[in-house]
């Protein structure tokens, strides 16, 4: 469970690996090769064996891409990683480009010539992403060519880590709240309504949720790498490496699920000839569309049928998540007490901070793993939203600075993700002002009431308004979905500036995490997980309104709050949250930690 702080990649990867990749490209007659971050399952967090982008470039962020040409190369990242990428990638070998504005398609259009052949692995690109690339290639005159094998895999060769083979185990109904038979029948009815006879599922989270199983193939996430075909009658075929099959699994899956191997998958796709088959063009690789069309199936493009039902947690999952957050909150409160007391004199470094928090979590009942490697960021490192400390970058806390810690745990009954920003010594007036502005945005979103049909993009501005009023902003989304003993990042909903057509619905868990980052100086983020509540009538109102209820329970650093910047309603809201933290977390603590929590949760003076 303990996270490693060793560098997993470095800028030398470019000089070491680019020649090998180019040699493998040349052997296949390619002028270029597309290297996405995503793997065969479109995972965000990858097994080491599938982290092709990191091996090729040295960049280890959770989103990005690269293109390798015979005489040049480029890496594409979004706003979260603009600083990190320059520290990890040899910029004499790779041009650094924006992943969002223009992205890879714009680069292909501007930098390739007529007749050049650009290879792509159809197992790594979704049809949606591939469509934009094809259009760009048409405009430049270049040719996109599917490759098999992937030249990068050939170049990686014997150095490549083995594929993960973690055992797949049942996920108890006490945690899932609905058995797999009922889920499959419900989704089967949805297929009938869409005119589909079957659906191909490739997302590990969908497979884990649908069959009520959990694995360990993906970093910090209890997911099995597998594929499945769901039929409209609720029966299914699950394609799973036999080495992962535990003794209890066949009986748990039942007679309605045929357990097969990945080698059986191509034949199973061929058997869908003449059938209408639903596949998600945003989640499933182009390989499946090509294979089904070649087999004579009629491909129906549509959203993964598991995505929205998985996002709308049932009452058992919400209750489990609340329980997990209480236990996690106890560990987090002990950690915050340590930061507020001992750490003020010790001035620990980032690795010591992350290790101490991990030790507190390890004392919690039911902890399975971290939900991601802890972001413990001191001083200027906190201005990097997705920074992770390493032995090379490890920085010591300092008086008059801020410490940002973003962390979480995986429990059988829930997944946690929480960020707290804490003062080390006496913070500056500017730090406190901007912390309070972030807090105002956090409180505004938490208090929001909204009608059915409202999307996350429609509410994002509430979290930014206080910052905007001072000419400030942040370059990441405000909220992401979170699973229940699944991924810490989960769709299809989100809260962000970017348009999103998925309405917020009861039972959805979503983060609330506005921030502010001053490059080279400090960073601020306040994050709670919250879930969407059922519509309720507001006295005097005409329409029932949905809202949010906090799951995360941990105090917010009072020393960074300027009360005069808060309205009376905001102070009351913060006081009510802290009163709840004390009521639910306090009984699990004693001695100095409980005394500290009582003071940390005291009402804010006006």
Automatic annotation (TrEMBL):
<dbReference type="GO" id="GO:0046872">
    <property type="term" value="F:metal ion binding"/>
</dbReference>
<dbReference type="GO" id="GO:0005737">
    <property type="term" value="C:cytoplasm"/>
</dbReference>
<dbReference type="Pfam" id="PF16188">
    <property type="entry name" value="Peptidase_M24_C"/>
</dbReference>
<dbReference type="Pfam" id="PF01321">
    <property type="entry name" value="Creatinase_N"/>
</dbReference>
<dbReference type="InterPro" id="IPR032416">
    <property type="entry name" value="Peptidase_M24_C"/>
</dbReference>
<dbReference type="GO" id="GO:0070006">
    <property type="term" value="F:metalloaminopeptidase activity"/>
</dbReference>
<keyword id="KW-0378">Hydrolase</keyword>
<keyword id="KW-0645">Protease</keyword>
<feature type="domain" description="Peptidase M24">
    <location>
        <begin position="322"/>
        <end position="533"/>
    </location>
</feature>
<dbReference type="InterPro" id="IPR000587">
    <property type="entry name" value="Creatinase_N"/>
</dbReference>
<comment type="similarity">
    <text>Belongs to the peptidase M24B family.</text>
</comment>
<dbReference type="InterPro" id="IPR000994">
    <property type="entry name" value="Pept_M24"/>
</dbReference>
<dbReference type="Pfam" id="PF16189">
    <property type="entry name" value="Creatinase_N_2"/>
</dbReference>
<dbReference type="InterPro" id="IPR036005">
    <property type="entry name" value="Creatinase/aminopeptidase-like"/>
</dbReference>
<protein>
    <submittedName>
        <fullName>X-Pro aminopeptidase</fullName>
    </submittedName>
</protein>
<dbReference type="Pfam" id="PF00557">
    <property type="entry name" value="Peptidase_M24"/>
</dbReference>
<feature type="domain" description="Peptidase M24 C-terminal">
    <location>
        <begin position="544"/>
        <end position="604"/>
    </location>
</feature>
<dbReference type="InterPro" id="IPR050422">
    <property type="entry name" value="X-Pro_aminopeptidase_P"/>
</dbReference>
<keyword id="KW-0031">Aminopeptidase</keyword>
<dbReference type="InterPro" id="IPR029149">
    <property type="entry name" value="Creatin/AminoP/Spt16_N"/>
</dbReference>
<feature type="domain" description="Creatinase N-terminal">
    <location>
        <begin position="19"/>
        <end position="148"/>
    </location>
</feature>
<keyword id="KW-0479">Metal-binding</keyword>
<dbReference type="InterPro" id="IPR033740">
    <property type="entry name" value="Pept_M24B"/>
</dbReference>
